[in-house]
Design goal:
Shape: elongated
CATH class: Alpha Beta
Number of strands: 6
Distance between the termini: 50 Å
Order of helices and strands: HHEEHEEEEH
Structural class: alpha+beta
CATH architecture: Roll
Radius of gyration: 15 Å
């Protein structure tokens, strides 16, 4: 692959991931999912085996729940780095104020501000088909008073 083609591909895969994070910021779950293979895999790493499933099922349920329970949820994309021709690592800060119980975390009206790492893998059509998400879950729960 020549340098120009490599740079064009790197920009293209980054753009898909940046658009995903922007759609998340806009709380546009349908747009987020439209950038993904809904049969692709999402891994919410701190949740263990229960945090692994299909993007169109588990991902949709968790992101939808977050948007409902944290209606002011927001994110700041600090970096998007192409690690290879189909992998992008994004460093993101996610924040929000809880207004409803979320999973096992009772609502105490508290705010969280949490660093996350999203590792996106894309197929040959630049569709996201695997997302690995990590964060300090204990700190997240502590911030929310759990």
């Amino acid at each position: 692959m020549n340098t120009a083609t490599h740079l064009q591909n790197e920009l293209s895969i980054k753009n898909a991931c940046i658009e995903f994070m922007f759609s998340y910021q806009q709380k546009n779950l349908q747009k987020m999912l439209s950038l993904c293979d809904t049969d692709g895999i999402v891994e919410f790493v701190p949740l263990g085996d229960g945090g692994v499933g299909k993007i169109g099922e588990l991902g949709k349920a968790i992101w939808g729940g977050l948007m409902e329970c944290f209606p002011d949820i927001d994110n700041t994309l600090d970096s998007a780095i192409a690690e290879d021709e189909n992998t992008v690592r994004c460093q993101v800060v996610i924040r929000g104020t809880q207004v409803k119980d979320f999973a096992d975390i009772k609502n105490k009206g508290k705010h969280f501000d949490s660093d996350h790492i999203f590792i996106f893998r894309l197929n040959e059509n630049n569709t996201i088909n695997h997302i690995n998400i990590s964060w300090d879950h204990e700190d997240f729960k502590r911030q929310l008073g759990s």
